[in-house]
Amino acid sequence: MSRVLVVWCPDWPVTAVGVDAATPGAVVVDGQVAACTAAARAQGVRRGQRIRDAQRRCPDLVVKERDTDEEGRLFEAVANAVAELTPKVEVVRPGLCAVPARGPARFYGGEEALRVLVQDAVVEAGFDCGTGIADGLFAAELAARRGGGVVVEPGGAAAFLAPYPLSVLDRPELADLLRRLGIRTLGDFAALPSGHVAGRFGPDGALAHRLARGEEPRPVAPAPATADLSVRTEFDPPAEQAGQVVFAGKRLAADLHEGLAAGGMTCVRLAVEIGFADGHVLRRLWRHDGRLSATAVAERVRWQLSAWQGERPKAGTDEDGVEGPQRDTAVWGGVVWLGMAPDQLVPDHGRQESLWGRAAVTERIARAADRIQGLLGHRAITRPVLTGGRGPGERVTRVPIGDLPPADRPDGPWPGRVPVPAPAVVPRRPWPAEVVDAEGAPVTVSARCAVSAPPARLEVDGRPPAAITAWTGPWPVIERWWDPRQARRRARFQVVTDDGAAFLLAVEGRRWHVEAAYD
User: Fold this and answer.
1) What is the rounded CA–CA span in Å between residue 433 and residue 459?
2) Closest CA to 396 of 382, 375, 381
3) Do 98 and 3 touch, CB atoms closer than 8 A?
4) Is the dihedral of CA 339, 340, 343, 345 positive or negative?
5) pTM surpassing 0.85?
6) Kind and range of the H or E element at 134?
7) Chain-centroid distance, C-alpha 340
8) pLDDT < 70 stretches in the chain
9) Which helix or strand (DSSP H or E) is residue 253 part of?
10) Were both Cys, which of 45, 118, 221, 489 would link to 40 (CB 3.0–4.6 Å)?
């Protein structure tokens, strides 16, 4: 089992937007709290809360939008501070990085000495952090979070993890199911037989079981590269704009992925090197749970350039008083080359998908998509991916072009799923509707799924009333009945109206709405 040192910076998304830990603050995404400071948590603010609920608990809460680019750029300063003491820094995600501990511990006089030295270096760089050393990344991260950091003795990861609650696995559905089975801690979960866990909870449960037992999340058996799979491009004259380098990085990453796919491999860890005209080389290792998409690699190239620009004089402030290039677009001195190399390879199990599915498209369309993403943001262009769910809207997840589909897509079974054929139109929000019988009375569905009267007329918001010529249903669906806060009960119908339209209707709490429409 490899020894790993982890550097964890608490509440990093909040730190990246300039809110200190003593100020009640939070960053939000889509109207929900994504991260908050310790002062906000002391007043009842929690991750996942809606903004208004968080502000009700903490009226003086400082709210800011999450800035993932700034998180990556700012964390470069932390990674650089660690890299001054030991090489091979793996950026797991902005706010968390890891290094192999065995060699540096020998050099610096022991694991505890190494842990304290790295922690002091990051604090001196201006960032609060915790550092921990243990067998494997998962245990080391929890060790870093405990009271500023501890060292877990070799072979003691399982005992260290045993008292922790299941919530640290970051798998809410699995944790909820295990709690209902009487399993409360990682130690209880680890005591279950591995074969039974895999048979009952599937691959995701088996992976969580390995983590609870203090083992690596996957066997450490990276396949060695039989050929040089690194890629490199040079700029002549040197590239003076960051956009030039980022665009080239995306193309370079696509070439790298093609070479990996030809060998049946995928890259888990990627080394990105940027050479400047003044001779400086900026190198960083990026870690990802699966293959890094071309867009994701381009984002990391931009982070590295932004971090390097942040260390140089700003525009108009150079030593000679001459106005310099703009910090957000220009690369100081110019970039002469960009290189990428897969630092860790694993067998490809076929999860990757091409940019546009199976459709053959021209290079012109691909360039247009890249350009739009560069102008409007990573999520400007998305594609639908089918996931698990019962309703038509629940089965579609929007994935940015260039990214992989969600790795944890549930595949069922889903009792009560809408039967085929699938509807052609699924509104972003269900359309309000009213269904009445021949007498004009609203149609209701009892708890025993008995229909009060045959549906006779459908009125959809914004459409003229139409007579219902055929219908089928109801199909009852009762979801999460064990959780009163999230329990949901509804019944679905398929109807055809006299104007030739067909709809998927749902009634919930005596309210009707249109979930989808058929061609």
Assistant:
1) 6
2) 382
3) no
4) negative
5) no
6) strand 130-135
7) 23
8) 1, 217-227, 263-264, 268, 287-292, 307-332, 344-367, 369-371, 373-379, 401-413, 415-416
9) helix 242-262
10) 45
